[in-house]
Amino acid sequence: MKPQKSTKGTSRFILCAFCAFLWLVSVVSFAQDLTPAQLEIQRQQQRLSSSDAEERRDAIMRLGSMRLTAASRAVLPSLQDVAPIVRATAAKAILSMDPEESAGYLLPLLNDKDEFVRRETAYALGLTRSRTATSALSERLLTDKENGVRAAAAIALGQIANEAAVVPLVKTLEQMRKPNVFVLRAAAAALGAIKSRAGTAALISVLSNEKVDSDVRREAARSLGLIGDPSATPALKAASTSADPYLSQIAYEALKEISRR
Q1: What's the Cα-to-Cα distance from 162 to each of 48, 172, 203, rounded to whole Å?
Q2: pLDDT value, residue 25
Q3: Among 140, 143, 149, 162, which residue has the fewest nearby CB atoms (within 10 Å)?
């Protein structure tokens, strides 16, 4: 009987070894079926579980640079990463997905507790060109405590170019109790990108106010040229004789743009 037990044990061992061999063959075969891009996505996806935030960030950057939908999808869990730098990096790395889908995943991050994450998310939403982001970005523009986030929201609204953003952009230009040049300049530029005449009056007011920073007045003049509303002609003519050579040149070019219409 003892030899019989030994034979059964040997048979069981051989069967297990054979099963392991089949599993290994199947794994190798599966790996051979993957494209180089799929293998790279898998490799970087494994790095996302690293305890080192910098390694996770690097993996996200590599996935984002692949410009592939599958690579962007692999990044999605990182939008909830504990490290702000990782969440912020992930915001732009998911943009190879459908724009509307990307926007849907990004919108919650506009309420992130970290300023850097909110700012990078705003920039990313601008790149999606999704109009669904207009309302949330407008809210950030008007209410965020950080000027960097407000400016990023204004830039994004200009990229999206939804006329619904004109009102909050105009309100930003009119509320200059504690003016921030970067925010005001971004708002003025966004109105020019949207090209709605509803923004003309606010831009004329900024252009005509010599107390406003020169950079903001220049951007207002440029935007008035893009909008092409003839009612801006008197203000632009006055600005074309400004002692600021950059402002006078921009105003002159804007006048030419209006005259061509």
Answers
A1: 36, 16, 18
A2: 44
A3: 143
CA triple 25-26-30, angle to 5 deg: 120
Look at residue 23 in the predicted model and tell me its pLDDT. 47
- Alpha helix stretches (DSSP H) within 53-114: 53-65, 69-75, 84-93, 99-106
CATH number for the domain spanning 241: value is: 1.25.10.10
**H or E, element range at 11:** helix 2-33
pTM of the model: 0.85
Neighbouring residues of 120: CB distance < 8 A, sequence distance ≥ 6: 88, 89, 91, 92, 152
Using CA atoms of 218, 221, 223, 228 in order, give the dihedral in degrees to the nearest 10: -170
Q: Is residue 178 included in any domain, yes or no? A: no
Per the structure, how many domains does the chain have? Answer: 1
Question: At residue 153, what are phi and psi to the nearest 5 degrees?
Answer: -65, -40
d(CA 134, CA 138): 6
Angle of helix 200-208 relative to helix 181-194, nearest 10 degrees, comes to: 140
In a domain, 4, yes or no: no
Q: Chunked in runs of 10, what are the mean pLDDT values of the chain (261 residues)?
A: 53 55 47 84 97 98 97 98 98 98 98 98 98 98 96 98 98 82 97 98 97 96 98 98 97 96 81
Using alpha carbons, list the distances in angstroms from residue 203 to 94, 149, 197: 35, 22, 10
Q: Where are the alpha helices (DSSP H) in 130-242?
A: 134-143, 147-160, 166-174, 181-194, 200-208, 214-227, 233-239
Query: Residue 216's domain spans which residues?
Result: 195-261
